[in-house]
Amino acid sequence: MSFDLKKIFLFFAADGTYLSGAPCGSGHIHDTFIIKTAERNKDDLLLQRLNNKIFKNIPELQSNIERVTEHIRHKLKLIPGSDVKRECLTLIPSKEGKTWINDEEGNFWRMFIFIPDHRSYDIVDTPARAYEGGKAIGRFQAMLADLPGAPLFETIPFFHDIEKRLDTFFRSMKSDPANRVAEVSAEIDFVLRRSEEMKVILRLGREGKIPLRITHNDTKFNNILLDNNDKALCVIDLDTVMPGYVHYDFGDAIRTAANSAAEDEEDLAKIKMDIRLFEAYTEGYLSETRSTLNETEKEYLAFAPRLITFIMALRFLTDYIDGDHYYKIHHEHHNLQRARSQFRLVESMEEQYGEMREIIRKMV
Ligand code: ADP
Ligand code: GN1
Ligand code: MG
Question: Which of 85, 155, 219, 353 has the greatest number of C-beta atoms within 10 Å?
């Protein structure tokens, strides 16, 4: 699909003249473009066509992002030496004064200032980077702990609810719309063997032992920008910031920060959770959150990566069975490959669970 990016650009009250537009990043959900401006002293922009099949209520989605970024911006301004435009996403309003536009084809678009001179990692290979990622997410959660006003909208209801994800999976399995179930019996077995133990975080929430906080819910490492010195810079991709358990953010970050291979690595022998990266991320994360987490939250942190990696594998597998309607894919078996790769990562975490628990026990 091609878009007239210049035309879309002109709907927004951006400062600067359109020079060029090109695809940007490796996100699975939106179509993202970097727009260069002609003037050297004007910011470049980040233009996104929003996936409104996944995010069904764009005004609510954008209202969350407006509130979250305003709150963080306000806090950063009080910190001497902070660079607000680089450490927090800045939405560019449309000429009508909203933070999104709806084009003639029914597409929704939004625009941010492009944060230059950043590094974004799909694979993390040094403990120092993992540590910085942990600090960034810890700080992000801490800054949002006192967000005033009503609760944020649930942009995707039941996003990390394992019971709902399992229900959806079983429904897809039964209807088998793309005739793919016969091909994935080993993966189905893998799910069935673990489905009960995965419900523990939900149960602790229901029992009131862990609180709902404001969490990011999509802490894949490439949603954390580092600067050119590999220091934590900015947490991006704020679409799923909403009430959640801290385990969701911790788990998803470890899933991506501590995996020695890519999320969709085909050669399963290459996939391993690197315990050094786990330790470094955890250290960074706890440096910002140690004093706020309760004992039960801390006790179950080590389990979180197993849960979230399992959920992601389950979602990739469900999308494969459904015929690939949710995630962007680059080839026919991509979602299956992602699922297999993530299931292997779950096993690697299971193998090292004792060590993970011990590291956290010593650190909290
Ligand atoms: P998706 O939900 O599809 O992952 P993201 O919001 O994460 O979309 O954006 C996709 C990619 O675009 C990011 O991984 C990052 O590389 C880049 N990106 C997003 N926002 C910015 C920004 N403000 N400045 C620089 N790069 C950005
Ligand atoms: C999607 O948007 P992106 O690419 O950062 C997905 C996450 C998954 C991730 C798997 C809204 O994240 O939940 O963990 O892919 N986001 C949504 O790579 O579904
Ligand atoms: Mg992203």
Answer: 219
Going 237 to 341 to 306 to 254, the CA torsion angle's sign is negative
Question: What tens digit of pLDDT does each residue of 27-49 get?
Answer: 899 999 999 999 999 999 999 99
**Residue 238 Cα, ligand 3 centroid: separation in angstroms?**
9
Query: From CA 306, how far away is CA 247, in angstroms rounded?
Result: 10
Q: How far apart are CA 139 and CA 242, in angstroms?
A: 16
Q: Which ligand 1 atom sits nearest the alpha carbon of residue 29?
A: 3
Residue 89 Cβ inside 6 Å of ligand 1? The answer reads yes
pLDDT surpasses 80 at 1: no
Average pLDDT, the chain: 98
Above 90 in pLDDT, residue 2?
no
Per-residue pLDDT of 210-238, as tens digits, reads 999 999 999 999 999 999 999 999 999 99
Gap from CA of 148 to ligand 3 centroid (Å): 26
Q: Is the CB of residue 27 below 6 angstroms from any atom belonging to ligand 2? A: yes
Gap from CA of 40 to ligand 2 centroid (Å) = 33
Give the β-pairing of 108-113 and 101-102.
Answer: antiparallel
Q: Using an 8 Å Cβ cutoff, are 241 and 68 in contact?
A: yes
285 to each of 67, 247, 253, how far by Cα in Å? 24, 12, 10
Rounded mean pLDDT, 343-363: 98
- Say what the pLDDT of residue 26 is: 86
Domains, in order of start, for the chain? 5-115 (3.30.200), 127-363 (3.90.1200.10)
